[in-house]
Amino acid sequence: MADSIAARKGPVSRFLDSDLWFSFSHSPLTIVSAIVALALIGAAVLAPVIAPHDPFNLATLNLMDAFNPPAWVEGGNPDFLLGTDDQGRDMLSTIMYGARISLFVGFCSVIFAMVLGVTLGLVAGFVGGTTDAVLMRIADIKLTFPAILVALLVDGLVRAALPRELHDRIALWVVIFAIGISNWVQYARTVRGSTLVEKNKEYVMAARVIGLSSTRIMTSHVLPNVMGPVLVIATLNLGFAILAEATLSFLGVGVPPTQPSLGTLIRIGNDFLFSGEWWITVFPGITLALMVLSVNLLGDWLRDALNPRLR
Amino acid sequence: MPLLEVRNLRVEFPTRRGVLTAVDDVSFSIDEGEVLGVVGESGAGKSITGTAIIRLIEPPGRIAGGEVLLAGRRIDNIAPEEMRHVRGKQIGAIFQDPLTTLNPLYSIGRQLAETMQTHLGLSDRDARARAIRWLEDVGIPGAAQRIDAYPHQFSGGMRQRVVIALALCAEPKLVIADEPTTALDVSIQAQVIALLKRLCREHGTAVMLVTHDMGVIAETADRVAVMYAGRIAEIGPVRDVVKGARHPYTEGLMGSIPSLTHRVERLRQIDGSMPRLTDIPRGCAFNPRCTKVFDRCRIERPDLMATDGPTRAACWLYAKGEARDAA
Amino acid sequence: MPLDAAAAATEARPLLEVEDLARDFDVSKPLLFRLLQGEKKRILHAVAGVTFAIPRGTTLSLVGESGCGKTTVARLVVGLYTPTRGAIRIDGTDMATLTSRAAQAPVRRRMQMIFQDPYASLNPRWRVGDIIAEPIRAFGLMRDRGEIEARVGQLLRQVGLSEKDSEKFPHEFSGGQRQRISIARALSSNPEFLVCDEPTSALDVSVQAQILNLMKDLQQRLGLTYLFISHNLAVVRHMSDRIGVMYLGKIVELAPGETLFARPLHPYTRLLLEAIPDLEMTGRQRTPVGGEVPSPINPPSGCAFHPRCPFANDRCKAEAPALVTREGVQVACHAVEEGRLAA
């Protein structure tokens, strides 16, 4: 029987045979997005290894190199492919390090929001009653504030509450917390909705009949079955989180300038835009746009691919 | 000339793993005023046959071959505009879930009246009067008061009555009823079946009754077609199919139904299950489950042929000159 | 060898006793809406006091139309719901006295449930082997992995599947095969009592026959006791020793299977038997009884069946009939009791 043949396949061939892989391999735009996203992530992660210069090593910086245009423009220096900034730092290397910070903040805040949102949504949906009502009203209230505003508020509060050095040291984590906390509601609502559906299915009843605890049923039965939409939201939110971090940094309340992210780079470069040194802001901008666009396209594809109604 | 004639109908669903043939070379006919039951287990292709005739197959499914003739005129290749007129005016449809047929935003009276105005050209006043008469006819209590009610204000059984009125109000020659009682409770089922039978007899409407419930067919149909894996396994007068089935599948199917009137220790069972459309066996699709299988069944696909009874069966047991004791 | 008195008593005691079991559901709108719209609380009396017992090794079926409360009874018995009123005793142990999970575990191990929808009753993310082994692990019946694997393989063979199937996921199986997996899971904790909630109503008839045969075989081989819930009278007749007919949360007639079909007493039972299309009655003309099941939120006064009953009189409208035993048949009907309705 065909059934028994399918069973003996390993996980790799099962994946290659899956509808997910099929829809991926038949969508050129998605493949391009995946390549771009992987290239950017790869460049960011491997920055210390592959970047041509170390922009944070003051010993190698030379102010004489400042304001070099990109290599292919007249007056460019082939040592600095994308030119240099006002302090003589190599733009390409700076962008790679900046992307590293941006992605780190993005990933961490998405994971934070996801863990918080999924937990609250799961509990609200599964326990129901007053717990559900309270959690969901909190979520409603949260939704009435724009995410960036919440992030600004959190950042401001922490700034006011903590001494300056301490704040600078944990600034990165404050940004992650601020973006994460402004984003959990979407996860919580989706997971709550799916949980309400799943908890009335008979496999959950079967687990109840044998007397499993609610915690165990939630984690081992319900959770794996509500994670599909969560992955879609997480992917789409990664783009948002990166943008949010860039916005905060652009406004000057994000990560400290000693660890410039893409947003910080754009802000710094913005000062030179009208004096003709366009590359200092344009290249980080392009990188940011590519990063967010490719991640969002991947998220869109994932949403469509996992949506049974569209298949 | 039969009212409906289906010749070599073939319905395909292209998927990424190849083309699935959901209905494969199916031919049958329905005479005027006749009730043809189409039975089969899920995946046999019975519903798809019904929806193919009225051309409501969900894409990417498509009719890949064959002809459908209504009163001698082909309807499988006419323009969608024209087909819309055939549906409703000449062929009515009743589906399992009344809510798929009824528009929740319009009162039932308006839906009935509009259907009659479109197809019969009645005036507003006449259409309304007739709508009330139809509702009375299908047994809606207080029809005159409830005509302006909306579908959600009716119970499931009442909704299905409204759907029957809607299917019959344009006086079609044929009604395709796809599992019309499956979603209803047993006591309501009996009411709806009795109603459908009475109205179709009164109006001389032919019915193609698609269901998995042999009991409903036994009580309602004149002839019955048993489908298996996209093909007709056996077709004939209902009593002969139920009591004297010739195809081993039909025989097994009848034996597997628990009876209300006598009790057996063990039900007769057909081992295995209907093949998925992705791997229909070579030869006769039933051969791996058949107790009377012989070599020819595994190689060559049988078409419907005359048997030693009044039914026609797609089974090599009845081929002329075939060794009968091959089992 | 003579059995001693205690053992004989255990043997004679029904495995399941249900006494005046009732369960209400609050189906009111949220408090705020109620206050704003001045509505009262709406209580649905899903089960309104049922009493029955199932002797060891036998099958009791509950039949009725949707909304009659049969599924609620099943879920009450296995502890998915807590009763509003009444008692459930498993082998003499009152379930209400067992409050902690640890105290309930030994009783829970002895009863299991088979569900209606084979597509929803197996966790789609789990392998079949893990699904079947879950009760074994939950009750700590076996610790050793190899031992569990061997037991899962044995269970799979017992329900007519192959040992290798434990590596697969539920979506690789057909409806009938999934129901077999569901049965294997239910058997894995060596239960004595199975609650089967419409186990074949989602299946095709030829597959239904396979599952019903399997369940009968297992009952004989393992001495199982069944509480069988179904709306299909023919299936119920095939499976049961005794049958309870439910209407709006109450049992209206409880009789041995053969008696119920040969001589139905309650008008509702007669209606049901009359209503079902059967292969034997090809072309027969019937006069179906009109009316529909009323809402259990607002049940009719007196006997709940009186609005549909051709034999109802003033007493039926005012006074709810009690379940009375006559010649081994329990029936709740004034007409039968008064002799107005011939048996």
What is the secondary structure topology, with strand pairs?
The complex is a heterotrimer of chains A (311), B (327) and C (343).
Chain A: H1 2-7, H2 11-16, H3 19-25, H4 28-45, H5 47-50, H6 91-127, H7 129-143, H8 147-161, H9 164-181, H10 184-198, H11 202-209, H12 214-250, H13 262-270, H14 279-306
Helix pairs in contact in A: 3-14, 4-6, 4-14, 6-7, 6-9, 6-10, 6-12, 6-13, 6-14, 8-9, 9-12, 10-12, 11-12, 12-13, 12-14, 13-14
Chain B: E1 4-15, E2 18-30, E3 35-39, H1 46-53, E4 62-70, E5 73-74, H2 80-89, E6 91-94, H3 98-101, H4 108-120, H5 124-137, H6 143-146, H7 156-168, E7 174-178, H8 186-203, E8 206-211, H9 214-220, E9 223-228, E10 231-237, H10 238-243, H11 248-255, H12 295-299, E11 305-306, E12 312-313
Parallel strand pairs in B: 3-8, 3-9, 6-7, 7-8
Antiparallel strand pairs in B: 1-2, 1-4, 4-5, 9-10, 10-12, 11-12
Chain C: H1 5-12, E1 16-26, H2 31-37, E2 43-54, E3 59-63, H3 70-77, E4 85-90, E5 93-94, H4 101-110, E6 111-114, H5 128-138, H6 145-158, H7 175-187, E7 193-197, H8 205-222, E8 225-230, H9 233-239, E9 242-247, E10 250-256, H10 257-262, H11 267-275, H12 314-318, E11 324-326, E12 329-331, H13 334-338
Give the overall silhouette of chain C: globular
H and E order of chain A: HHHHHHHHHHHHHH
Q: Biggest sheet of chain A, in brief?
A: none
What is the number of beta strands of chain A?
0
**Structural class given helices, strands, pairing of chain A?**
mainly alpha
User: In percent, how much strand structure appears in the residues of chain A?
Assistant: under 5%
As a percent range, the share of helical residues of chain A equals over 70%
Instruction: Please tell me how large the radius of gyration of chain A is.
Output: 23 Å
H/E element sequence of chain C = HEHEEHEEHEHHHEHEHEEHHHEEH
**Number of helical stretches of at least 4 residues of chain A:** 14
**What separation lies between the terminal Cα atoms of chain C?**
44 Å
